[in-house]
Amino acid sequence: MSKRTDSNSYTIIFAVAMVFIVGSLLAFLASSLKPNIKENERIEKQQNILYAMGINENDASSANFVSTEIAGGEFKKYIKKQLILEDGKVTENSDAYLIDVKKEQTKAKDGKARRLPLFVGEKDGETFYVAPIRGKGLWDAIWGYISMDENMVVQGAYFDHKGETPGLGANIKQRYFMDDFIGEHLMSEAGVFKGITVKKGNNDAVNEDKTDYQVDAIAGATITGDGVSAMIKKDLALYVPYFKNLKK
Amino acid sequence: MGLLSKKDAVLLTDPLADNNPITIQVLGICSALAITAELKASIVMAVSVLFVLGLGNVVISLMRNIIPSKIRIIVQLIVVATLVIIVDLVLKAFAYELSKTLSVFVGLIITNCIIMGRFEAFALANGPWRSFLDGIGNAVGYGVILIAVGFFRELLGSGTLLGFAVLGDPIEKTGLYAIGYENNGFMLLSPMALIVVGILIWIQRSRNTALIEEN
């Protein structure tokens, strides 16, 4: 090899130039693709909310959203009201679904008031209340949407994750796991919020008992499952006052 | 062989068997262990590595005379990371569904030792065309093992292939399960990937004894 590339000054100049070129290339690409990416994320949120309400294109075993082309229209059609709960006050806002739950959680940690989005949907004469949840899995963030009736009985659930292990934790977004939540009660008869625990060996593998506040865990995905239990307990508890008010 | 000279063809075929990156060079084990619990994930990873290694080898090969030797590892790392991020961004903008399946792999591809290994061992010393062939050959050799491991782990661990139940329903007790077969959940845990790879290495070396190292 030539001696030219061994000198310190060449090395430094090369490093600076490389960082500059790669940096500007990536920055340019990221900012020019941002509108597309944002739009995709927005549609995905609508699909997620509709999925939790039971508006999806599921076949026998796999989970499928309504297609991206019709998601916007279906969202308008089925979601009757979008609410923001803040400090006990309820306001309507047609962009409530764009609220970043992660940011709101950080706000709550800093002691500021947190805005809680809640989507009220109607399908076949039934009313669905869909709330977003967010927490931590084994490797990274996990999140989802839970749709409930006015007694906080789960009508549908959607979970997603950023980087859980394929075949193990990543299976929280499989039908057999998400469907187990349907019909589960979140609140006891006496009106005490119990949440739903993802539990190993709960002797109810086919999930017949809907008032045990438990669903069967995925083998090998204990920490992800615990994360799901925790985000349901923590985030949905915040909606309890709203549901209690509803029944008065 | 009009397209490839004999010397070039070896670059493609050698990594498939006698110089396989996983079973002979023992590179890329970390990702082989992390994502082979499902066949689909294995296939996606194999295709992603094929793309990044083929392209990355060409880029590094083109730059081989201007890269300062003192910082060559960092330069290689930047090239891989940039390629992977570009692919990730483009997919996010134009094939969002696919990008969600891939997001898990982005970090794994950047740190895949096969990629760094081929850059360092081959692309730095050879021309772009030969480097491209070497990259494709090694990525395919890696992918074949990955898919084989994924096949056995998903089949024996979950009783499914690509998500389809091929052995019957374990809860309804149909198919094989009706006669008392049980899924081996142990297959889904990472150590079993190493055992499956170990078995593949054993089979390969017992068929080709020239590969056995002397003590």
TrEMBL record, chain A:
Its main location: membrane. Residues 137-239 form the FMN-binding domain. The keyword Lyase does not apply. The chain crosses the membrane at residues 12-33. The modification FMN phosphoryl threonine is found at T222. It catalyses: a ubiquinone + n Na(+)(in) + NADH + H(+) = a ubiquinol + n Na(+)(out) + NAD(+). It is found in: Cell membrane. InterPro entries: FMN-bd, NqrC. Its cofactor is FMN. HAMAP family: NqrC (MF_00427). Composed of six subunits; NqrA, NqrB, NqrC, NqrD, NqrE and NqrF. This is Na(+)-translocating NADH-quinone reductase subunit C. The lineage of its organism: Bacteria, Pseudomonadati, Bacteroidota, Flavobacteriia, Flavobacteriales. The gene is nqrC.
From TrEMBL, chain B:
Its EC number is 7.2.1.1. GO terms for biological process: sodium ion transport. Composed of six subunits; NqrA, NqrB, NqrC, NqrD, NqrE and NqrF. It is a multi-pass membrane protein. It catalyses: a ubiquinone + n Na(+)(in) + NADH + H(+) = a ubiquinol + n Na(+)(out) + NAD(+). It holds the Pfam family Rnf-Nqr. NQR complex catalyzes the reduction of ubiquinone-1 to ubiquinol by two successive reactions, coupled with the transport of Na(+) ions from the cytoplasm to the periplasm. NqrA to NqrE are probably involved in the second step, the conversion of ubisemiquinone to ubiquinol. It is found in: Cell membrane; Endomembrane system. Its main location: membrane. GO terms for molecular function: oxidoreductase activity, acting on NAD(P)H, quinone or similar compound as acceptor. This is Na(+)-translocating NADH-quinone reductase subunit D. The chain crosses the membrane at residues 41-62, 74-95, 101-119, 185-203. Keywords: Cell inner membrane, Cell membrane, Ion transport, Membrane, NAD, Oxidoreductase, Sodium, Sodium transport, Translocase, Transmembrane, Transmembrane helix, Transport, Ubiquinone. One of its GO terms (cellular component) is endomembrane system. Belongs to the NqrDE/RnfAE family.
